[in-house]
Amino acid sequence: MSTSSLRLGVNIDHVATIRNARGGQHPDPVRAAEMAAKAGADGITAHLREDRRHISDGDIDRLMGAITLPLNLEMAATDEMLAIALRHRPHACCLVPERREELTTEGGLDAAAQHNHLAPYVGQLVDAGIRVSLFVNPDRIQLAVAKAMGAQVVELHTGAFCDAVNEGRAEDAASELERLRIAAREGREMGLEMHAGHGITFESVGPVASIPEFVELNIGHFLIGEAIFGGLDSTIRRMRALMDQARSSSTQIA
């Protein structure tokens, strides 16, 4: 697999979080999306939450009209979000769990337990020509259910691995990385396109990027936070370079 096969999706949610802290129009998430494209992003991700705590409906309207990169709309499986997705028809929709009281997405969807609820949403999005992803934990059962529902893509939750790296828990990090490796391989064997995301930093991106079955990493909060210190352009370029370096090294070893 070539280095170009690993895409970077930049999540711009927290540009909107900063804007909403004070109100007004600045900083503008659409401008951030345009800058991300110039810095080497392959796609833009935005999560329209039920409570609109960061990205707004107006942001989605403007993103659809302003950017040329594929838009990945993260959303809960609700009738309101389905109607918005069908109206805009973004390149992709990633169904994620959502609870009002959470600060960030705390884990993957339990697709197995929620099959009867999720399946109709997956079907309607697929019928509309939208690529559908389910955000799940690295677990074979979740992958199999996602495939059975008709999802074309699965994004594996990398939070447990990244937390272990950040906290210096080497044994846990190794264990969680192996879970990701196994799930990525199993998902690909099922015919799913494999993505990964959540909590990825400069320190944790290399091992994730080196897993050959992954074709896209979605990274947001860390990039926006680092941009405060180093600028968005240079931060994205550094992440892109680390991803490419890890993928190139893993290809040479293989």
TrEMBL record:
GO terms for cellular component: cytosol. The keyword Cytoplasm applies. The active site is at H47, E74, H198. InterPro entries: Aldolase_TIM, PyrdxlP_synth_PdxJ, Pyridoxine-5'_phos_synth. It is found in: Cytoplasm. Its main location: cytoplasm. Homooctamer; tetramer of dimers. This is Pyridoxine 5'-phosphate synthase.
